[in-house]
Amino acid sequence: HVKPYRFFKHTGDINAPPQATKTNENTEHQFQFINPEERGDSQDEDKAPDEDKAPDAQDKQAPDAQGKQPPGAQPKPPPEGSFPDVAPDHEAVEDTDDYLLFLETILTNVHKAFFTLYDKEPSDSKKLDLKTIIPYLKKKVLPGVRLVFSGVFPMNVRANTTQIYKLAEAFGAVVQPDVVTKEQDETKFTTHLVAARWGTTKVNTASRLPYVQIVTPQWLWCCIERWEK
Questions:
Q1: 143/169 Cα distance (integer angstroms)
Q2: Residue 148 forms beta bridges with which residues?
Q3: Most CB contacts within 10 A, which of 3, 101, 105, 181?
Protein backbone atom coordinates (compact mmCIF):
# COMPACT_ATOMS: atom_id res chain seq x y z
CA HIS A 1 0.00 0.00 0.00
CA VAL A 2 0.98 3.63 -0.50
CA LYS A 3 0.95 5.96 2.45
CA PRO A 4 -1.04 9.07 1.48
CA TYR A 5 0.48 12.48 1.98
CA ARG A 6 -1.65 14.58 4.32
CA PHE A 7 -1.74 18.28 3.53
CA PHE A 8 -3.97 18.97 6.53
CA LYS A 9 -4.25 17.21 9.84
CA HIS A 10 -7.05 14.68 10.31
CA THR A 11 -7.90 14.52 6.62
CA GLY A 12 -7.93 11.44 4.45
CA ASP A 13 -6.74 10.79 0.93
CA ILE A 14 -9.32 12.19 -1.48
CA ASN A 15 -7.62 10.29 -4.35
CA ALA A 16 -8.00 6.89 -2.71
CA PRO A 17 -9.87 4.30 -4.86
CA PRO A 18 -13.39 3.30 -3.78
CA GLN A 19 -12.19 -0.20 -2.81
CA ALA A 20 -9.88 1.15 -0.11
CA THR A 21 -10.94 1.10 3.54
CA LYS A 22 -9.64 3.68 5.95
CA THR A 23 -7.88 2.55 9.12
CA ASN A 24 -6.49 4.58 11.96
CA GLU A 25 -3.37 3.39 13.73
CA ASN A 26 -1.61 5.75 16.13
CA THR A 27 -3.37 8.75 14.50
CA GLU A 28 -1.68 7.88 11.15
CA HIS A 29 -4.16 7.34 8.30
CA GLN A 30 -3.42 4.37 6.07
CA PHE A 31 -5.46 2.61 3.40
CA GLN A 32 -5.67 -1.16 3.03
CA PHE A 33 -6.65 -2.57 -0.36
CA ILE A 34 -9.15 -5.45 -0.40
CA ASN A 35 -9.49 -8.13 -3.04
CA PRO A 36 -12.85 -7.71 -4.84
CA GLU A 37 -13.54 -11.51 -4.61
CA GLU A 38 -12.95 -11.48 -0.88
CA ARG A 39 -15.09 -8.40 -0.56
CA GLY A 40 -18.01 -10.13 -2.33
CA ASP A 41 -17.86 -13.05 0.10
CA SER A 42 -17.83 -10.74 3.07
CA GLN A 43 -20.82 -8.85 1.70
CA ASP A 44 -22.81 -12.08 1.38
CA GLU A 45 -22.00 -12.99 4.93
CA ASP A 46 -23.05 -9.56 6.15
CA LYS A 47 -26.41 -9.70 4.43
CA ALA A 48 -27.85 -12.45 6.64
CA PRO A 49 -27.63 -10.51 9.91
CA ASP A 50 -29.13 -7.45 8.20
CA GLU A 51 -32.13 -9.46 7.05
CA ASP A 52 -32.69 -10.73 10.57
CA LYS A 53 -32.49 -7.20 11.91
CA ALA A 54 -35.00 -5.81 9.38
CA PRO A 55 -38.04 -6.26 11.67
CA ASP A 56 -36.19 -4.56 14.49
CA ALA A 57 -35.42 -1.58 12.26
CA GLN A 58 -39.09 -1.25 11.45
CA ASP A 59 -39.95 -1.35 15.11
CA LYS A 60 -37.44 1.40 15.83
CA GLN A 61 -39.00 3.63 13.19
CA ALA A 62 -42.45 3.36 14.77
CA PRO A 63 -43.29 6.11 17.29
CA ASP A 64 -43.39 5.16 20.96
CA ALA A 65 -46.42 5.27 23.20
CA GLN A 66 -45.88 8.97 24.05
CA GLY A 67 -45.95 9.94 20.36
CA LYS A 68 -42.22 10.78 20.15
CA GLN A 69 -40.52 10.19 16.85
CA PRO A 70 -37.39 7.94 16.83
CA PRO A 71 -34.04 9.46 15.87
CA GLY A 72 -33.73 10.04 12.14
CA ALA A 73 -37.48 9.88 11.48
CA GLN A 74 -39.11 12.61 9.36
CA PRO A 75 -41.25 15.00 11.45
CA LYS A 76 -44.92 15.15 10.62
CA PRO A 77 -46.11 18.42 9.00
CA PRO A 78 -48.44 20.57 11.13
CA PRO A 79 -52.14 20.40 10.27
CA GLU A 80 -53.62 23.03 7.99
CA GLY A 81 -54.60 26.25 9.71
CA SER A 82 -52.11 25.83 12.54
CA PHE A 83 -48.84 27.70 12.97
CA PRO A 84 -45.71 26.34 14.63
CA ASP A 85 -44.73 27.77 17.96
CA VAL A 86 -42.21 30.60 17.76
CA ALA A 87 -39.41 30.67 20.26
CA PRO A 88 -39.65 33.64 22.64
CA ASP A 89 -36.16 34.82 21.70
CA HIS A 90 -37.16 35.19 18.01
CA GLU A 91 -39.17 38.39 18.16
CA ALA A 92 -40.61 39.97 15.04
CA VAL A 93 -38.53 42.87 13.73
CA GLU A 94 -40.54 46.05 13.32
CA ASP A 95 -40.16 47.61 9.89
CA THR A 96 -39.83 51.38 10.28
CA ASP A 97 -39.00 52.10 6.64
CA ASP A 98 -41.84 54.30 5.39
CA TYR A 99 -40.10 55.75 2.34
CA LEU A 100 -42.58 54.15 -0.06
CA LEU A 101 -45.34 56.28 1.43
CA PHE A 102 -43.37 59.46 0.67
CA LEU A 103 -42.38 58.15 -2.74
CA GLU A 104 -46.06 57.75 -3.57
CA THR A 105 -46.64 61.41 -2.69
CA ILE A 106 -43.64 62.50 -4.76
CA LEU A 107 -44.80 60.61 -7.85
CA THR A 108 -48.34 61.90 -7.39
CA ASN A 109 -47.09 65.50 -7.28
CA VAL A 110 -45.00 64.94 -10.40
CA HIS A 111 -48.07 63.51 -12.16
CA LYS A 112 -50.25 66.46 -11.15
CA ALA A 113 -47.63 69.00 -12.19
CA PHE A 114 -47.24 67.41 -15.60
CA PHE A 115 -50.95 67.46 -16.43
CA THR A 116 -51.43 70.91 -14.91
CA LEU A 117 -48.92 72.28 -17.37
CA TYR A 118 -50.50 70.18 -20.12
CA ASP A 119 -53.94 71.67 -19.48
CA LYS A 120 -52.55 75.21 -19.55
CA GLU A 121 -50.76 74.81 -22.87
CA PRO A 122 -52.03 71.73 -24.72
CA SER A 123 -50.49 72.98 -27.94
CA ASP A 124 -47.02 72.81 -26.40
CA SER A 125 -47.51 69.34 -24.93
CA LYS A 126 -44.57 68.03 -26.93
CA LYS A 127 -42.28 70.43 -25.08
CA LEU A 128 -43.25 69.05 -21.68
CA ASP A 129 -40.38 67.08 -20.21
CA LEU A 130 -39.72 65.63 -16.78
CA LYS A 131 -36.22 67.07 -17.01
CA THR A 132 -37.77 70.48 -16.43
CA ILE A 133 -40.73 69.51 -14.24
CA ILE A 134 -38.76 67.61 -11.59
CA PRO A 135 -36.20 70.41 -10.98
CA TYR A 136 -39.11 72.85 -10.74
CA LEU A 137 -40.77 70.76 -8.03
CA LYS A 138 -37.47 70.36 -6.17
CA LYS A 139 -36.99 74.12 -6.00
CA LYS A 140 -40.29 74.37 -4.12
CA VAL A 141 -39.12 72.15 -1.23
CA LEU A 142 -36.82 74.64 0.57
CA PRO A 143 -37.85 78.07 -0.68
CA GLY A 144 -36.62 80.98 1.41
CA VAL A 145 -34.15 78.78 3.33
CA ARG A 146 -30.72 80.37 3.72
CA LEU A 147 -28.43 77.96 5.44
CA VAL A 148 -24.84 77.73 6.59
CA PHE A 149 -22.82 74.53 7.06
CA SER A 150 -20.64 74.05 10.13
CA GLY A 151 -18.34 71.08 10.74
CA VAL A 152 -19.86 69.10 7.88
CA PHE A 153 -17.02 69.24 5.36
CA PRO A 154 -13.31 68.48 5.87
CA MET A 155 -10.96 71.45 5.82
CA ASN A 156 -9.28 70.36 2.59
CA VAL A 157 -12.56 69.92 0.64
CA ARG A 158 -14.39 72.71 -1.13
CA ALA A 159 -17.97 72.87 0.07
CA ASN A 160 -19.49 73.59 -3.32
CA THR A 161 -18.13 70.31 -4.69
CA THR A 162 -19.89 68.06 -2.14
CA GLN A 163 -23.14 66.25 -2.75
CA ILE A 164 -25.12 67.71 0.14
CA TYR A 165 -24.17 71.25 -0.93
CA LYS A 166 -25.36 70.67 -4.50
CA LEU A 167 -28.57 68.98 -3.35
CA ALA A 168 -29.37 71.82 -0.94
CA GLU A 169 -29.20 74.29 -3.83
CA ALA A 170 -31.15 71.94 -6.11
CA PHE A 171 -34.00 71.84 -3.58
CA GLY A 172 -34.28 75.63 -3.39
CA ALA A 173 -32.01 76.56 -0.48
CA VAL A 174 -29.42 79.33 -0.59
CA VAL A 175 -26.09 78.29 0.90
CA GLN A 176 -24.09 81.01 2.65
CA PRO A 177 -20.45 80.79 3.72
CA ASP A 178 -20.99 82.48 7.10
CA VAL A 179 -23.86 83.39 9.40
CA VAL A 180 -25.59 86.61 8.31
CA THR A 181 -27.53 88.52 10.96
CA LYS A 182 -30.53 90.77 10.46
CA GLU A 183 -28.38 93.75 11.40
CA GLN A 184 -26.12 92.96 8.48
CA ASP A 185 -28.89 92.28 5.93
CA GLU A 186 -32.61 92.16 6.71
CA THR A 187 -33.45 90.36 3.47
CA LYS A 188 -30.66 87.79 3.32
CA PHE A 189 -30.14 86.84 6.96
CA THR A 190 -29.39 83.19 7.79
CA THR A 191 -32.39 81.03 8.68
CA HIS A 192 -30.77 77.61 9.30
CA LEU A 193 -27.40 76.39 10.51
CA VAL A 194 -26.58 72.80 9.57
CA ALA A 195 -24.06 71.72 12.21
CA ALA A 196 -22.40 68.34 12.61
CA ARG A 197 -21.24 69.08 16.17
CA TRP A 198 -21.50 71.63 18.95
CA GLY A 199 -18.85 74.11 20.02
CA THR A 200 -17.91 75.64 16.69
CA THR A 201 -17.74 79.40 16.15
CA LYS A 202 -20.74 79.36 13.81
CA VAL A 203 -22.81 77.37 16.30
CA ASN A 204 -21.97 79.77 19.11
CA THR A 205 -22.93 82.70 16.92
CA ALA A 206 -26.20 81.14 15.73
CA SER A 207 -27.21 80.07 19.24
CA ARG A 208 -27.46 83.79 20.20
CA LEU A 209 -29.79 84.53 17.27
CA PRO A 210 -33.42 83.50 17.91
CA TYR A 211 -34.34 83.49 14.21
CA VAL A 212 -31.64 80.96 13.26
CA GLN A 213 -32.61 77.30 13.62
CA ILE A 214 -29.73 74.94 14.38
CA VAL A 215 -30.31 71.58 12.68
CA THR A 216 -28.28 68.46 11.92
CA PRO A 217 -27.24 67.16 8.49
CA GLN A 218 -29.78 64.35 8.98
CA TRP A 219 -32.55 66.95 8.92
CA LEU A 220 -31.39 68.22 5.55
CA TRP A 221 -31.02 64.70 4.18
CA CYS A 222 -34.56 63.92 5.33
CA CYS A 223 -35.92 66.99 3.51
CA ILE A 224 -34.10 65.92 0.35
CA GLU A 225 -35.30 62.34 0.65
CA ARG A 226 -38.97 63.18 1.26
CA TRP A 227 -39.18 66.33 -0.85
CA GLU A 228 -40.71 68.26 2.02
CA LYS A 229 -39.49 70.64 4.70
A1: 10
A2: 176, 193
A3: 181
